[in-house]
Amino acid sequence: MKKITADVLIFLILTSVLVYSLHPQKSLILQLLVFALSVVTYLLGTGLLKLPFSFRAMGTVGHVLICTGFYWLFGMMLMDSLKVVFNLNMTDNFDILYFVYGQEQGVVYGFLIVLAILYFVIGKLYMRPVYELYAEAIHGRERKGDS
Questions:
Q1: What is the pLDDT of residues 62-94, one digit of tens each?
Q2: Would you give the end-to-end CA distance of the chain in angstroms?
Q3: What does the alpha-carbon distance between residue 130 and residue 57 come to, in Å, rounded to a whole number?
């Protein structure tokens, strides 16, 4: 139950920062660069490269930060698309969602569903290095406690 609550809380925090603080933009090159960096940090964090634990920990921290950036960039790209489709002249995501909700409520719900799928499905697969590193650290601590 705690894990589900933490996941929902993290999703709400990330989405709130996206909607209330960030401005819509579309930068495909930046998104591709961040995606490529997330793949590299994924490899650093999973242990496929047989790196020591400390390097894997740094790779995992970088991975979490880069994936958060990708989530925000993807959301800002979606907001920019909404701005173009609905012919809005606005810079704040909250205002865009407010006016789109007034015209087409289903579009706003669809936007939130896409963000939820990105976070809860794809994000969970991409967070595998974090879970593996945590399990390895706990298992190492238990082995030290047994000896």
A1: 888 998 999 999 999 999 998 888 888 887 788
A2: 32
A3: 8
- Check if the beta carbon of residue 136 is closer than 8 Å to that of residue 53: yes
Tokens of 92: 């704040």
Kindly tell me the burial class for residue 103, based on how many C-beta atoms sit within 10 Å of its own C-beta (0-12, 13-18, 19 or more): exposed
Residue owning tokens 């790209």: 77
Token pair 């490899």 in the structure block, residue: 43
CA-CA distance, 46 to 53, in Å (whole number)?
10
Dihedral Cα 9, 11, 16, 19, nearest 10 deg: -170
Please, are residues 25 and 80 in contact by the beta-carbon 8 Å criterion?
A: yes
Report the C-alpha gap between 27 and 25 in whole angstroms: 6
**Which is nearest to 111 in space by CA: 87, 93, 90?**
93
Residue type, 71: Y
Specify the pLDDT at position 147.
56
